[in-house]
Specification:
It is built from 26 helices and 25 strands. By secondary structure, it is an alpha/beta fold. The protein folds into four domains: 2-136, Beta-Lactamase (2-Layer Sandwich); 147-289, Rossmann fold, CATH 3.40.50; 294-453, Reverse transcriptase/Diguanylate cyclase domain (Alpha-Beta Plaits, 2-Layer Sandwich); 464-713, EAL domain (TIM Barrel, Alpha-Beta Barrel), CATH 3.20.20.450. The chain binds ligand C2E and magnesium ion (2 copies). One magnesium ion (MG) is lined by residues 620-621, 641, 674.
Amino acid sequence: MSSTNSLNKDMERILYRRYVKILYVDFTADTFVNISAEAGESFVFGESGGIKTLSTEFSEFADGPLCADEDRARFKEFTNIKNIKKRLSMNPRKAMCFSYQRKRSEEDAKFGTFAMEIFPDIDENGHNVAYIFVKDMTAEIKSYVSSIEEKELQHAEKQNSNIRKVLIVEDNAISIAIADKIISEKYNTLLASNGEEALHVLESNEDVSLILIDLHMPVMDGFTFLREKKQNPSIASIPVIVTTSDAGAEEEIRCLSLGATDVILKPYNRDIMLSRVESVIRLHESSVALSAVERDDITGLYTRSAFFHYAEKMLSQNKDISYDITITDIAKFRHINQLYGTETGDTVLKIVADVLQKFLKNDKILIGRYGADQFAILGPTELLAEYAKRDNFFAEVDRKLKKSEVDKVVNIVFKRGIYSCVDKSIPVSEICDRAILALRTVEPEYGNSTAVFSESMNDELNHIRMIERSMQTALTKGQFKVYFQPKHNAQTGKLVGAEALIRWIHPEKGLMTPGMFIPIFEKNGFISKLDQFVIRSVCKNIKEWEQNGIKPVPVSINISRRDLLVKEDEGLLSEIIDEVGVEKKLINLEITESVYGAGEDWLIARIGRLRDQGFQIEMDDFGSGYSALNMIKAMPLDTIKLDMGFIKHLDEHVEVVKAMISLAHVLGKKVTAEGVETEEQLTTLRTLGCDTVQGYYYSKPLPLEEFTEYLKNN
Ligand code: C2E
Ligand code: MG
Ligand code: MG
């Protein structure tokens, strides 16, 4: 043991950090040495002596105040020298370990966990010796326990988030492999190669969230499967998406009438497939959750399925009376939730429901909570018309809101979709669909807006289908063209930039503007592909101008919220631009205000990183939503683009625009006005100090060739 005298410093430090006490015991010579280390000091040889002394020390500790009551007996038992010797004689090289609770000092009220380890050895003289280490395990145990807890929590979370099961039914090996690859990104998949097998799989798996089925398969095809499934109550409610490579309208209708929720066309597009699957599952689950009870918790109104049930009854019992259905929706309810919290959101719902019930108190009228912020009202056409005449419903809602705690939600706007004189031969769900269809056409600019269903609205559904069917081909066949709209310096009139705006030159429909397809692409995810195409072609155009000796101006590209969502795509923009070899200062990014206003900090952080990479960021449509002027100070952006609404009615808004421009300047941001059509508007904006203008006054968006000429001439 003499070598311990010269323990090197590092060794000491390591030992000191790990052990509070080290003893060396020579059983043969009947002696021990205490190598102790006081805080901050080196190891020193402390007391030594006969083992009896050590024995007494152990037993005094066990009886003293430092040892936890419940461990006293066990401690004595373990440290009893006779016992140790006995164990060593049985197994001379086996280490022993024991853990117990003790206090660090008498002042310390808390117990920690300590471990005593005994490592036996035989020294050079053939003596039976042992090292006894005492180690403070408190921190280690704590972190171990919390790591276990964390693991358990993660496990529980996984279980809770319960990765859903999707059954893929398909006979073609390649199709099934592709579908499996896409779906298993987010779901657990089950596979079956025909309808019959699918029924077997469903028998042994209770919790399938969705079935994805091909129509044409051997043994049992998709149609037969749908029919069989409809007959079997235990699986009838599982939603089904039909996959097919050539659904004609008739085939599609047949599937839908057999209970399919949706149809997806092959070849599969990952984004579309995942987003459809997700939305079908979500829709189904929320309707199941709602149908579990008849009355909704928050509003006390009928739940959606209870509403369906009673509506069905009401309509079938009153065949001779004409009925109307109205679905009312609170515009931008999501913002209310995000800005003021869900509690406020709930209160708003409650108030609206209360007022509805009070106003329409009549047992001929049925009211239900149709969706998150949607209320359905079914009643006789005449009766509802009467109510509508003396309707001061909105004033009453306002009054109640003012009286409640939520009067900060000053501006609640309602949208209403009405389906009048409903066709009683169709299911209530479809009756509601028609009201919703009408509702979707409402653009609540100011005030309350209503739309009434007309047969032509069915055309909209058909339009969406047409767009989705042809978008991929359109991209590969070059039907999308980037147009450029010039931006001019408001003060000098100099050309200073351009905005890239997409156009779809459709072989049958002719020129389509973004309003006709961008909202659809934003929903189904195709927008990301389109935007990548826009960036790539704009970069190529800039490169070509440079190569032809035409000095380019910075081009602004519209970035959709969707583009910012995929984490893996973070570097994509930079990559594309570097690949083509265009300077970042020639590409500006327009990001619409609502992306900033949604309160998603990570999205804003992502925009910040794009700005750090060297892109100029323009906040598009400023003033159309909820963002306050003072918040733009902290936001990653260089320019605000005033919403076109302000310019359209510039006379009315001149004071506001003036304030916005000066405040933006104080905050170090530039201001662009778009939609400038007249000389007067330009003059006003110039006087107000606006930096840049864009609009028909200078030029409409131009196709590449025309804009290239424009560039040359300016
Ligand atoms: P935005 O970014 O606010 O674009 C301005 C819109 O105003 C364009 O409509 C433009 O043609 C129109 N405009 C320009 N000057 C005037 C004017 O003097 N008077 C009037 N009344 N309108 C004017 P457009 O091209 O139909 O685009 C509509 C929206 O579609 C754009 O709004 C933008 O949000 C979106 N968009 C267009 N191209 C793309 C794209 O490539 N990607 C993405 N993600 N969105 C795009
Ligand atoms: Mg824009
Ligand atoms: Mg805009």
